[in-house]
Amino acid sequence: MPILFVGHGSPMNAIEENEFSKEWQALSATLPRPTAIVSISAHWETKGTFVTLSPTPQTIHDFYGFPQALYQQRYAAKGDPQLAQEIINQLDPAVGGDNQWGLDHGTWSVLKYIYPQADIPVIQISLDHYLSPQQHMELARQLAFLRTKGVLVLGSGNMIHNLRMVNVKGGDFNAEHGYDWAFELNDVFKTKLLNRDIQPLVNFSSLHPDIKLAIPTAEHYLPMLYILGMMQPNEKISLFNDKVIAGSLSMTSFLINDYT
């Protein structure tokens, strides 16, 4: 199966028809139908790693101050407790199961466009706040077996994500606009990615003098490492939604597959 990293951006993308949501819709026509979806979202950080076990995961509205229409959104995909338990059994060191968490907006705001029927089981794997980037990468490599089982793995975050420095231009949050360092680092990330120079992306803290402006906290960046950790040699990397917005956010996303 292909693997996918999506810059999910604002929760408003879940109810707006814009260039980003249109690209997500377009993916549905190119991706093979998976047996299940495993999502690693920036919005579920934990102490330890956990996998959702619920057969009917709730739609989580983990944001505030948005229009009521956004809180009325539901993504009624089923869970897959059997697959979740297989993941738990496969990973070392041991991870736990979770019956409380559901699907947060890093997951459902994207999947509602790619698989609008919500008829494919979805589970989430949490981000252990206490693991190093290298440890996240090693965990990702253990998850690569999912690709041979027809499972689509989604990493959802943003390569560049600094909400404290957001600067909306002309009232349009999604207009192309960024600080010099944001454009520069977006190019650095893409160059490393397309050249398959992956280790500097893992050791990102020393990648660039302004890296702390782009990644003040790592939770939106780390889902990308899970996708890179599952990549096989010579696979095709296709960029989409390659855009810096709101001064300090990158929507740049990519699909990895072995299509000829």
UniProtKB/TrEMBL annotation:
Domain Extradiol ring-cleavage dioxygenase class III enzyme subunit B as annotated: residue spans: 20-233
Gene3D superfamilies given in the database record: LigB-like
Cofactor dependence: Zn(2+)
NCBIfam families (UniProt xref): PRK10628.1
Coiled-coil parts of chain: none
SUPFAM superfamilies per record: LigB-like
Family from the record: Belongs to the DODA-type extradiol aromatic ring-opening dioxygenase family.
One Pfam family cited in the UniProt record for this chain: LigB
Keyword Oxidoreductase in record: yes
Protein name listed in UniProt: Extradiol ring-cleavage dioxygenase class III enzyme subunit B domain-containing protein
Keyword annotations of the record: Metal-binding, Oxidoreductase, Zinc
InterPro entries hit by this protein: Extradiol_dOase_DODA, Xdiol_dOase_suB
GO molecular function: ferrous iron binding; oxidoreductase activity, acting on single donors with incorporation of molecular oxygen, incorporation of two atoms of oxygen; zinc ion binding
